[in-house]
């Protein structure tokens, strides 16, 4: 158990809908990262937050947004869902940023999103 | 633009054999970070190692070792005396130090260790 929790574990929804994925980082970790893993796109970095502030954006679609709250949990919002958004969404946390100690990332179990 | 190549899509070895997983990266930055992650059949991702571009020392952790060579832009991962539990997909990743953590992952290498 990495200490990172993600809810829900599975989510099935229809095209055009909006969903929210939630991530709670390990206690003490200030950084939260979101990743998408799909069969055709592989593993892709979406976005990184550090202590409530967005630090880096990867291949995140405009229909997707994220935020990190004062209690450091994070939410990934996916809207106007398309069939191609079906994927496993991982959240990871770490103490700090690259270059510093404690950069090891710990991953949650993932949320499997199925868009029908 | 940054890129990570893992040319080996799938590798099968017999238990106790040594196996090396290749990773070649491209970046224009002089400061960058390289990573390896493991994804066992259960699906969770496990962080294995981080290496920054200024540290070319090889690293050994138990049966795992990593060889970082800037001259060939490679960061290869060797498992010595492989075990069935090593069966997983292994991802190499690159992050450029741009005040954020913008990662690029390789496509992964599926390692099967047969008993």
Please characterize this protein's 3D structure.
The complex is a heterodimer of chains A (116) and B (115). By secondary structure, chain A is mainly beta. Chain A has no helices and 11 strands. Chain A has strands at residues 5-7, 10-13, 19-24, 31-38, 42-50, 53-57, 64-68, 74-78, 87-94, 106-107, 111-115. Chain A starts with a strand and ends with a strand. In chain A, 39% of the residues are buried. Chain B has strands spanning 3-5, 10-14, 19-21, 24-26, 32-39, 46-52, 59-61, 64-69, 74-79, 88-97, 101-105, 109-114. In chain B, strands 2, 5, 6, 10, 11 and 12 form a 6-stranded mixed β-sheet that branches. The N and C termini of chain B lie far apart (41 Å). The model of chain B has no long low-confidence stretch (mean pLDDT 91).
SSE blueprint and pairings:
The complex is a heterodimer of chains A (116) and B (115).
Chain A: E1 5-7, E2 10-13, E3 19-24, E4 31-38, E5 42-50, E6 53-57, E7 64-68, E8 74-78, E9 87-94, E10 106-107, E11 111-115
Parallel strand pairs in A: 2-11
Antiparallel strand pairs in A: 1-3, 3-8, 4-5, 4-9, 5-6, 7-8, 9-10, 9-11
Chain B: E1 3-5, E2 10-14, E3 19-21, E4 24-26, E5 32-39, E6 46-52, E7 59-61, E8 64-69, E9 74-79, E10 88-97, E11 101-105, E12 109-114
């Amino acid at each position: 158990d990495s200490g990172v929790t993600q809810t829900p574990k599975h989510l099935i929804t229809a095209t055009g809908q909006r969903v929210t994925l939630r991530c709670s980082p390990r206690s003490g970790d200030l950084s939260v990262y979101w990743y998408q893993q799909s069969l055709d796109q592989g593993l892709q970095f979406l976005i990184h937050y550090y202590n409530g502030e967005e630090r880096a954006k990867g291949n995140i679609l405009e229909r997707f947004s994220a935020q990190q709250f004062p209690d450091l949990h994070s939410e990934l919002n996916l809207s106007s869902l398309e069939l191609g958004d079906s994927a496993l969404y991982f959240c990871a946390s770490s103490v700090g940023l690259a270059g510093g100690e404690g950069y090891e990332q710990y991953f949650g179990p993932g949320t499997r999103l199925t868009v029908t | 633009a940054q890129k990570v190549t893992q040319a080996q899509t799938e590798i099968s070895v017999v238990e106790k054999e040594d196996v090396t997983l290749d990773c070649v990266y491209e970046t224009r930055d002089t400061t960058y970070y390289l990573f390896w992650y493991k994804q066992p059949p259960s699906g969770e991702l496990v962080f294995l190692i981080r290496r920054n571009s200024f540290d070319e020392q090889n690293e050994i952790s138990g049966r795992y070792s990593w060889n970082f060579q800037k001259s060939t832009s490679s960061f290869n991962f060797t498992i010595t005396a492989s075990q069935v539990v090593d069966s997983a997909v292994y991802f190499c990743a690159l992050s450029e130090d741009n005040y954020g953590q913008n990662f690029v992952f390789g496509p992964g290498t599926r390692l099967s260790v047969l008993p």
